Amino acid sequence: MSEPLQPVTTETADEHNQHIVSPPTFTSKAIKEYIKTRFTSLWVGKEALNKYPWYEICNPFHPLMGLTAHQWNFFFLGFWGWTWDAFDFFITSLNVTNIAEDLQVSTKDVTWGITLVLMFRTVGAAIFGAIGDNFGRKLPYILNMILLMSIQIGTGFVTTYSQFLGVRALFGIAMGGIYGNCSAEALGDAPRKARGILSGIFQSGWPTGYLLAVCFQRAFEMTEKTWQNMFFFSAGVPVIFIIWRLFNSETYVYQRQKARFHEGAIQKESKIAEFRHQASKAMRTYWLIIIYLVLMMSGFNFSSHGSQDLYPTMLTSEYEYGRDRAAVVNVCANLGGIFGSIIISHLSTYFGRRTLIICANTFGGAFLYLWAFKPTWITAFLMQFGTQGAWSVVPIHLNELAPPQFRSFVVGVSYQLGNLISSASATIEATMNETLHDLGKTMAIFEGAVLCYLIPIVFIGPEHKGAELGVERDDRMCDNDFVPEDRKGSDVEMVPEIVEDVKQEKA
User: Fold this and answer.
1) Distances (CA, A) of 2 to 100, 156, 188, 445, 485
2) d(CA 168, CA 103)
3) Fewer Cβ atoms within 10 A, N terminus or C terminus of the chain?
4) Cα Rg for the chain, rounded, in angstroms?
């Protein structure tokens, strides 16, 4: 069954065509113009803002009213997959001391388990991203969940440090495939106005996973084998997601991508030839953007892991917080991340992706001293409001910049390469602390340096707020086209199953 069609207006066509990506040029004129627009594009202008009523800008949930059951279904498939991925990851962070005691190693040794996960996630992103772009997102989603379940169970049974490192490396591969495919599922069919807030809700799955882990950690602390039971528990929930995904097909965006590939393969009489053509075109056009995405995601991942991974350890070891007080502070920190994600991502729809990322990181940096040296639930809340608020724009920003035919691959790999580069965050902080003997000062210095890198990187980068997420991304649009609803499409090739509908509409 095809999507409902709508006519394209001249205004819509012009908006779409502004976001067509061309291969980069390095003439002095092009470079000067680009540098100029880095400043001018930070403010959208009064005329652009006047298109929206203020109640719409001030109410982050207003854009969600227009979502269909189909769009909500795929969004929550992606959201819960990503949330539980975060839950699985943070079990180790919350149990660094417990694992170190049971395995008879140092806290620093256990942080290498976190580092290995971050390092091997790139492998998983490449493998499962390629599967997702070529065979659909259903297969890698289910495979990822099965692997995560198996590895989490295995982690609960480890008895030596070598076994612990081995299963964490395997976990990194399985975890790496989640982000690219889940973000494609969650945002692919979403209406344009709702993408900002949905990006924030999706990214808030990370602090939500952390929040759930903190709550369940407190509950399992009443049991004898706390960290082992946490791993066993985390392995059971993905069964729900597997069954849920089995009963759904692919998103409309992926179905159009598959149809376009099929037509190209017929014309070239070879699927391999069509794949090579698309890959070559994407690399010629997007190579500079892809390099930039890796640099940007390195900064974001240093920021996130630098402010979160050892924060529970800092509260208990440096400031001697009891378990209850530490749990309250961690819960508030993640609530701050969730609130920041909703507000910042929504505003990015109207004021721009880069602008809100810079503002949110600046806000978080303003509370850096209090967060590190006067840790309370308020300072933790405000710090993560800014840090995770900036992060909330990342899913849609990545998806709008990535080549559509390889969106899962590029989004996942750029995200995880950033993780690879920042993989030693916890170990770097632990090593710095051996010299400074003050984990609060260590984390403040580390996080301050990261913000001094990340804000300028975001400032000089490109932005395509509102760009098409489907395969029609770089097709020039005409104002007499008919396209599926909530899609700004193409005047080139239509999906075969809607061609007859288009002809009837135009007739």
Assistant:
1) 55, 47, 16, 54, 10
2) 14
3) N
4) 23
Judge contact between 221 and 323, C-beta under 8 A. Answer: yes
Q: How far is CA 90 from the centre of its chain?
A: 16
3-state secondary structure of 24: coil
The pairing of strands 5-7 and 482-484 is antiparallel
| Mean pLDDT, rounded, of the chain | 86
Grouping H, G, I as helix, E, B as strand and the rest as coil, residue 250 is coil
d(Cα 284, Cα 286) in Å, to the nearest integer? 6
| Torsion, CA 395, CA 300, CA 319, CA 101, rounded to 10 | 80
Q: Provide the CB-side half-sphere exposure for 333 (13 A, CA).
A: 33
The residue among 350, 355, 352, 406 whose CA lies nearest residue 21 is 406
pTM: predicted TM-score of the whole model, two decimal places: 0.85
Segment 193-237, tens digit of pLDDT: 899 999 999 998 888 898 899 888 888 888 888 889 999 999 999
CATH fold of 78-460 reads Growth Hormone; Chain: A; (1.20.1250)
Contacts of 82 (CB under 8 A, 6+ apart): 178, 179, 182, 183, 186, 202, 205, 206, 209
